[in-house]
Amino acid sequence: MQIKIPLSRVLTILIGFPAISYLLSLLLLRREWFDSLGLDFFTLFWMLIGLWYLIQIGITIRVLKASHLDLSAIGYRFNFQRTAWLITGYLILAFALFGFIEFALASANVTEEEINSLSDLSNITPKTTTNRIIFIVVGLVAGISEEFVYRGFAIQSLEGYNINKWIAVIISAIPFVFQHGLKSIDQFWWFFIWGLVLGIIFILTKRKLYINIIIHWLIILSGMLAILQLID
């Protein structure tokens, strides 16, 4: 299904969303601001990111409605009940993984000093029980938001301007990079390649966006496993 959305709205989402996300990511370089105020950086940062993801979902839905479209136009065809089951499945898997990590850390008697010694692969690695719960919740909305915006909306909207689907996949991967901030060339290629992979999956699965969401969730949840490197 080819959709036609005003170019100004397409650009607002594909340029505006990653631009704001990039600015938010710069807070990762200013952790001392939070520390000086006695605030928990991880909690506040990820709650802010989670809120921004929810806003992105809301804006995307409003833009679609303004063009007399719904989420099925970007490949998401689940009704409320099936969406509830999809989210329930994510939560079951996420908290099973959470339980495994908590048990493994407790059994290995990992100390707080050892956890704090993790390298900054760790800017995103939740180091405490509370942070892991927050990470799970944010991961839920992140997977949905990014697939709605950078696969479903981006690819479908670009094709509406007669852009070849594979070119649309490549173009959509670029704002996806900046959605995560950009602090190094390695980071660029990491997110760009994942953007391409997820875009290709979207096309090859006949634009069944729920498949992308599930895969994206699995990638996010794998970030919690980094802390297990502390276990000998």
Task: Please explain how this structure is put together.
This protein is mainly alpha-helical and 232 residues long. The chain has one domain. Helix content is 71%, strand content 0%. It is built from nine helices and no strands. α1 runs parallel beside α7, α4 runs antiparallel to α6 and α6 runs antiparallel to α7.
Concise structural overview:
The chain is an all-alpha fold and 232 residues long.
Q: How many strands in all?
A: 0
What gross morphology would you assign?
A: globular
Supply the helix-strand structural class.
Answer: mainly alpha
Average pLDDT figure: 89
Topology as H/E string? HHHHHHHHH
The helix content, as a percent range, equals over 70%
Number of domains: 1
The N- to C-terminal Cα distance equals 52 Å
- Please outline the major beta sheet: none
Query: Which percent range describes the beta-strand content?
Result: under 5%
Rg calculated over all Cα atoms: 18 Å
Count of individual helical segments: 9
Uncertain segments of ≥5 residues (pLDDT<50)?
Answer: none
Please render the helix and strand layout as text.
Blueprint: H1 7-25, H2 31-36, H3 41-66, H4 80-107, H5 112-116, H6 129-159, H7 165-179, H8 185-204, H9 209-222
Helix pairs in contact: 1-3, 1-7, 3-6, 4-6, 4-9, 6-7, 6-8, 6-9, 7-8
Features of the shown structure:
9 helices; mainly alpha; 232 residues; single chain
